[in-house]
Amino acid sequence: MTTPIRILVADDDAAKRLAITRILTQAGYAVLQATGGVEALDLAQTAAPDLVLLDVEMPDLSGTDVCLQLRVEPATNALPVLYLSAHRTHSQDRIEGLDSGADGYLVWPMDPRELLAWVRTLLRVRHTERAVRAANADLNHTLESISDAFFALDDAWRVVHFNAAAERALGRDREQVLGRALQDGFPEARGSMLEEKYAEVLRDRRPLVFETYFDRPPYANWYEVRIYPREPGISVYFQVITTRKQAEAERENLIRDLQAALASVKTLRKLLPICAGCKKIRDDEGYWQSVEGYMLQHADVRFSHGLCPDCLRECYADLGDEPASSNGTLR
Question: How far apart are CA 38 and CA 129, in angstroms?
């Protein structure tokens, strides 16, 4: 079951109060009645009405005083207030009433349809304001929960958002920067490449994503930065990536060291002149060397000596067919 909209009617004139109550009740609203300003203030603070209709002149506490007190209390400062007056009907009275914080000022008696039209309008405004506040609360919760540092600038370069991750990354409380121009809160950014990038997105309304090293203390670090246009201004998301950059540099150094080590390994990839008789090899300087000597100079090898099966039979023919091991030695 839908909870009816509740409207508080405050007027010390019983006939006028009852007439207004009847109009509102017939339109389907739930009505709370107050016979004076003090009671109206109490009900506004405790009964949580959706709208307040106030007589301007009440003996204990005027409607103006009630409205002023409602506006200073966080729980009621957004509560719509509509003045209804049968005596203070001049333009200056309306101006003073609106300047006191009221959302509308009507002269009684009036056409009930006009009164209901004002009621519907103020209730729509209140509903819209609640929706905007809820959306802003959801947005703020999202911005506070993300791991990326985030801040937003308006078109005048004023900082309008600054989340907890940005506080940690930059070492500044949001109270120190909110509402201030970026260059005042962070003079280190003045004239920097980052300032140029912010100006570019503000001007061209196209996002930018990049990595950069900011070399100005106390913010000297590598940053990954994403800048998006918003209305009005820009949104900036960033992460400090110095640790990642250091790891990448170490990896590149290791790759270079490995490549150098591989390049230093001795390999043979060329045509070798070899003697058909003694099997010596001629080196690059024209000297003839044994195979062992040449290989030791030009390849990362060591030698072990033995006899192949053919040489074994030739050198040791008297041993007959005694089988040899695979490396040429006798079993």
Answer: 27
